[in-house]
Amino acid sequence: MAAIRFGFHWRKHLKAWSRQGFRFPSNDFDSKVGVVHPIAFHLGRLPIHWYGVMVALGFMTGLWTASRRGLREGVAAEKILDLGPWLILGAILGARTLYVISYWREEFADRPMEIFMIQKGGLVFYGGLVGSSLACIIYVHLKKLPLWKFADILAPSVALGYVFGRIGCLMNGCCFGRVCEVPWAIQFPNRSPIWKQHFERGLVGEMDRSAPVHPTQIYESLLNLGLYLGLVWLYRRKKFDGQVFGAYLVGYALLRSFVEMFRGDYPQHYLGGWATPAHLVSIGILATGAVLLLILSRTAPQRR
């Protein structure tokens, strides 16, 4: 299958990239699955990136499903929808801030104005989770609403929204996997960001595609879909407010840690070279979720 077309110089290469889709290196999988590239459409001369489209779709889907879920708890849909702008602002600020901190030397030290170019990608989920959580706390405090009930309503929808977000990463060419030889490995096009990394490491030639890599974006998208379904199941059977949100923190930290073992885009690793920055954050998120479940199970009113 042909490779996804994206890269640093998309204006120059867009026409060539748009003629190609995925490419699986194995001959057993050599078939066409579609034409994709980072630009969804143009508004006049303004390019609208698939990354932004998918993130927006994730937000809208998440808010809609949360508003429907809230009705079962006696929470008006308007209160969930009113929370939306707070969550969006908090998520974007948190996600972009952590990305800039993580990749300052590689991407922003010489080009500080790139900090504001979020339509090209560059959002770190854990930063968005922290930012949106803080925004939610502020909102429910100002409106005098029950925090843990709201957290449970939102938690499954966060996982669902992330399904769309990771597809946006796939289209954008970020968050890619490490080199591998599995039959479902994918290759990215010549002159794309991952090709540049592989070329600098001597893994590919000047006219080659990238080396085959794990489709980590697809891994995480599918795992988050499974997490969403599990949280929806738990929501209908929860024993106390905050249980679903705590389970989300634990579940996401575990699945993210699993996917991180296949990531190949980090410039630095820790703990002897096996741990990514997200592994370290996942430890904290996992511990937070476990402690939250323990405390709330003992102090929150039990549901019958």
Name the structural class: mainly alpha
Provide the succession of SSEs.
HEEHHHHHHHHH
Strand content: under 5%
Mean pLDDT, nearest integer? Answer: 82
Helix content: 55-70%
The count of DSSP E runs of length 2 or more, i.e. the number of strands, is 2
**Biggest sheet descriptor:** 2 strands, antiparallel
Question: How many structural domains are formed by the residues?
Answer: 2
Uncertain runs = 1-22, 26-36
Give the terminus-to-terminus CA distance: 53 Å
Going across the major beta sheet, what is the strand order?
1-2
Q: What does this molecule look like?
A:
The protein has 304 residues and is mostly helical. The chain folds into 2 domains: 1-37 and 179-213, no CATH class; 38-178 and 214-299, no CATH class. The protein is 58% helix and 3% strand. The protein has a two-stranded antiparallel sheet.
